[in-house]
Amino acid sequence: MARDDKLNGSNGTAANGVAVNGSGAKAPQAANGTANGASQDDYGNQEYIVRARGVTRMYDVGGQPVHALRGIDLDIRRGEYISIMGPSGSGKSTLFNMIGGLDKPTEGTVFIDEVDMAQLDAFELAWLRCRKIGYIFQTFNLIPVMTALENITLPMIFAGASTDEQLERGRELLEQVGIGHRMNNKPSQLSGGQQQRVAIARSLANQPAIILADEPTGNLDQKTGKEIIELLKRLNRESGVTIITATHDDKMLDVSDRIVWVSDGKIEKVKRREEVDITLGTLEGSVH
After folding, report:
1. In the CATH hierarchy, which top-level class contains the domain 3-284?
2. I need a labelling partner for 202 at 20 to 30 A (CA). Which of 52, 191, 216, 217 fits?
């Protein structure tokens, strides 16, 4: 298959042979109709940006097989705000890495915008990650010797944008996240909240379809964390970008469209926000 055909699944025929149109694909239902936590009537005609089918991941640790994921089925709609929860060792981070193209399943498939990630070579995968996915990390991961503006424009260099385009968009993004006046400051001159705002702006540099946020409030105080959550929700609402976050922060769950609980390598349950009671840091919503 030609490289462009594999990478442009939403504008032709996806790598798995599913016909799609220029506005994106209408994803088929899972075999049982409930893999995404909703009924067939609810989601039968919705457009999906992420589809995971039968995803397993097994590691060899000292000659012993360790199953990190055990047959994950999950659909995420374009423009959704999704939170993934689970204790340490649940498989949450592995699932997160699968969606981000940072790891490949042992079995099963993950489609991003109808492109089968497993069919891409290293160059194609790097191209997709650069242009389709933005990343936000708990520890910010800014380059210390670069200014805020330089950190934001770096992904645009890899995407081939001109210098003028980089500077114009970088300034616009800094204004959008509320720290346009700090564009010439280096990370050491910024507070934790300001650094995370730079990281958010950087994740939007190449106008991705998906933002993956790994514990984005984990290193922030409560007030600053709330501001970052509100900023992410505003960006989700205004730009339509799909946000998928791994979190333990109940405030993050409060702005989510759906919440996915992962346990022992499987999806334990999926709930819409209105189906979950979040009160005084206590999360209610037992498995039914």
Report:
1. alpha beta
2. 52
Which amino acid is residue 274, in one-letter code? E
Of residues 50, 7, 47, 51, the one with CA closest to residue 25:
47
Which tokens hold the place of 112?
Answer: 């991003």
- For residue 103, what are its two tokens? 């790891």
Give 245's strand partners. 83, 213
Taking the model in full, what pTM does it have? 0.80
Residue 80 in 3-state DSSP? Answer: coil
**Residue position matching structure tokens 């998928």:** 244
- Pull the structure tokens for residue 100: 């981000």
* Residue indicated by tokens 């003028």: 164
Residue 73 token pair: 């089925």
> Distance of CA 45 to CAs 25, 27, 60, 215, Å?
10, 8, 40, 31
What is the C-alpha separation between 98 and 121, in angstroms, rounded? Answer: 15
Sequence ranges of the domains in the chain: 3-284
pLDDT in tens, 46-96: 589 999 999 999 999 999 999 999 999 999 999 999 999 988 889 998 999
